[in-house]
């Protein structure tokens, strides 16, 4: 085996090549580090080749001893909202410039060194993202925008845009992302890769810098469903001592049912996902994917999710409210950026936060503080929580008629940089199809379904009932066995 094509191999292929000694972990790590020179598409925020190669050497020793983990020696990169001891963690914000955590996030541990019970993956570094995971375009990072490998004039999606772009550009075979309102699924769609958000609470949130605590959920991003199944198998499992939102649900091998027949699978098609506002090119690609499912034996069932439109106002009340509380800890006292000139403690708070936070973060903090303020809590926040419950109930009614729900991830393909610069609400509206599942805490994923205008990728969204990740991954894998959209890559990659 030559090392020149290692970047084109999937997670599963690399894992097999490493276990069979066709290539070493150091060779794999060295090959990927060479591709990171110049930081293509501004995807990485921190790289340390010494750390990466030391991890690879340790993996080779375990592989030689026959004690390697599930994914021993396979490279991964982490979204910069997961704290790490060996790399700086900034959450894409100036206020955390240079911050280094004294511990690793649980998800980082679970994928990391097998000597500590992890899957044995080797970290390539930390990936760019919208500041504190707030955004749909990756234009909000304090360290510069990430560009889409399919067209560098277009956004990669957000907030996990660095993760999606890095996987699409073959800079890493896998990456972690977080999904609060669609931040794994939407950039996966825009960059032509696969990503899954598990049921809320299945993967630990410990060590994930919080944006909206009742919504944030980590998950894997890779090129295909098989790789996502491998990664998710390593990520999930209870973390009850460290994460109060962790579910006491045992880890699961999500690869076990990947090849099950789809004969008789009922796929629900929400009429609200196919109405006015959905671009014709996106609809054509999604419709084509749905026809493939029919060929595979699945049955398309019309359903309704009547409160879909309400998910946007509900989300943009609840999420900013939680953000205003979570981000109060960034005040310049204990860690991160501190203003240089101030007269007293209050002045230091004000100047530190004004200098450290970007415009979108400030906007959401102010919105959240407003809806939680005296006189508005009942009118806005409490009502939003009631409608959130109704949105979750809509899904449960739908799942009496179908097994899986399918539709578009976003109303359009990736837009050009600056198109929504003066209209943040336009970015918010792009989340209309991903927000409902997030508000309900359901698992959802995006997989390549074709191409739209200017050859830009289009993603198909699959939503499952609670703890039905295996069913989603099976449906995605079978479609990918019948199509080749997930095999396509940007020009020049």
Automatic annotation (TrEMBL):
<dbReference type="GO" id="GO:0006412">
    <property type="term" value="P:translation"/>
</dbReference>
<feature type="active site" description="Acyl-ester intermediate">
    <location>
        <position position="183"/>
    </location>
</feature>
<comment type="function">
    <text>Allows the formation of correctly charged Gln-tRNA(Gln) through the transamidation of misacylated Glu-tRNA(Gln) in organisms which lack glutaminyl-tRNA synthetase. The reaction takes place in the presence of glutamine and ATP through an activated gamma-phospho-Glu-tRNA(Gln).</text>
</comment>
<feature type="active site" description="Charge relay system">
    <location>
        <position position="159"/>
    </location>
</feature>
<dbReference type="InterPro" id="IPR023631">
    <property type="entry name" value="Amidase_dom"/>
</dbReference>
<dbReference type="GO" id="GO:0050567">
    <property type="term" value="F:glutaminyl-tRNA synthase (glutamine-hydrolyzing) activity"/>
</dbReference>
<keyword id="KW-0067">ATP-binding</keyword>
<dbReference type="InterPro" id="IPR036928">
    <property type="entry name" value="AS_sf"/>
</dbReference>
<comment type="subunit">
    <text>Heterotrimer of A, B and C subunits.</text>
</comment>
<dbReference type="InterPro" id="IPR020556">
    <property type="entry name" value="Amidase_CS"/>
</dbReference>
<dbReference type="InterPro" id="IPR004412">
    <property type="entry name" value="GatA"/>
</dbReference>
<comment type="similarity">
    <text>Belongs to the amidase family. GatA subfamily.</text>
</comment>
<protein>
    <recommendedName>
        <fullName>Glutamyl-tRNA(Gln) amidotransferase subunit A</fullName>
        <ecNumber>6.3.5.7</ecNumber>
    </recommendedName>
</protein>
<keyword id="KW-0547">Nucleotide-binding</keyword>
<feature type="active site" description="Charge relay system">
    <location>
        <position position="79"/>
    </location>
</feature>
<dbReference type="GO" id="GO:0016740">
    <property type="term" value="F:transferase activity"/>
</dbReference>
<dbReference type="GO" id="GO:0030956">
    <property type="term" value="C:glutamyl-tRNA(Gln) amidotransferase complex"/>
</dbReference>
<keyword id="KW-0808">Transferase</keyword>
<keyword id="KW-0648">Protein biosynthesis</keyword>
<dbReference type="InterPro" id="IPR000120">
    <property type="entry name" value="Amidase"/>
</dbReference>
<dbReference type="GO" id="GO:0005524">
    <property type="term" value="F:ATP binding"/>
</dbReference>
<dbReference type="Pfam" id="PF01425">
    <property type="entry name" value="Amidase"/>
</dbReference>
<keyword id="KW-0436">Ligase</keyword>
<feature type="domain" description="Amidase">
    <location>
        <begin position="34"/>
        <end position="473"/>
    </location>
</feature>
């Amino acid at each position: 085996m030559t090392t020149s094509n290692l970047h084109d191999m999937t997670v599963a292929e690399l894992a097999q090549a490493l276990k069979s000694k066709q290539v070493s972990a150091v060779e794999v790590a060295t090959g990927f580090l060479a591709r990171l020179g110049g930081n293509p598409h501004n995807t990485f925020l921190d790289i340390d080749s010494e750390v990466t190669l030391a991890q690879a050497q340790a993996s080779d020793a375990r592989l030689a001893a026959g004690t390697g983990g599930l994914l021993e020696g396979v490279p991964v990169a982490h979204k910069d909202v997961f704290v790490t001891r060996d790399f700086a963690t900034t959450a894409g914000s100036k206020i955390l410039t240079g911050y280094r955590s004294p511990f690793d996030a649980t998800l980082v541990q679970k994928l990391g060194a097998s000597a500590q019970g992890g899957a044995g993956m080797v970290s390539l570094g930390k990936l760019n993202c919208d500041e504190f995971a707030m955004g749909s375009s990756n234009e909000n990072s304090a360290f510069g925008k990430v560009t889409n490998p399919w067209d560098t004039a277009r956004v990669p999606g957000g907030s996990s845009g660095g993760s999606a772009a890095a996987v699409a550009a073959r800079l890493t075979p896998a990456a972690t992302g977080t999904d609060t309102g669609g931040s794994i699924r939407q950039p996966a769609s825009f960059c032509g890769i696969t990503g899954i958000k598990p049921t809320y609470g299945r993967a630990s949130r410990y060590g994930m810098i919080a944006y909206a605590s009742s919504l944030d959920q980590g998950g894997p991003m890779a090129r295909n469903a098989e790789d996502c199944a491998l990664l998710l198998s390593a990520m999930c499992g209870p973390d009850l001592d460290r994460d109060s939102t962790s579910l006491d649900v045992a880890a699961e091998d999500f690869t076990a049912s990947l090849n099950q027949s789809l004969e008789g699978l009922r796929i629900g098609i929400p009429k609200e996902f196919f109405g006015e506002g959905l671009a014709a090119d996106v609809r054509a690609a999604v419709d084509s994917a749905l026809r493939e499912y029919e060929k595979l034996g699945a049955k398309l069932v019309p359903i309704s999710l009547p409160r879909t439109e309400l998910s946007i106002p509900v989300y943009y009340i609840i999420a900013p409210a939680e953000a205003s509380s979570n981000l109060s800890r960034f005040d310049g006292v204990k860690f991160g950026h501190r203003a240089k000139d101030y007269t007293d403690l209050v002045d230091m708070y004000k100047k530190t936060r004004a200098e450290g936070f970007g415009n979108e973060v400030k906007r959401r903090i102010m919105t959240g503080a407003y809806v939680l303020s005296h006189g508005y809590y009942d009118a806005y926040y409490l009502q939003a929580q009631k409608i959130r419950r109704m949105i979750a109930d809509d899904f449960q009614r739908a799942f009496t008629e179908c097994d899986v729900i399918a539709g578009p991830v976003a109303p359009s393909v990736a837009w050009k940089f600056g198109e929504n610069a003066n209209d943040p609400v336009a970015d918010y509206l792009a989340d209309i199809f991903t927000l409902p599942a997030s508000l309900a805490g359901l698992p959802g994923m995006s997989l390549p379904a074709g191409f739209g205008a200017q050859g830009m990728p289009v993603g198909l969204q699959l939503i499952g009932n609670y703890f039905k990740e295996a069913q989603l991954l099976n449906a995605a894998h079978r479609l990918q066995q019948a199509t080749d959209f997930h095999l396509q890559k940007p020009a020049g990659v």
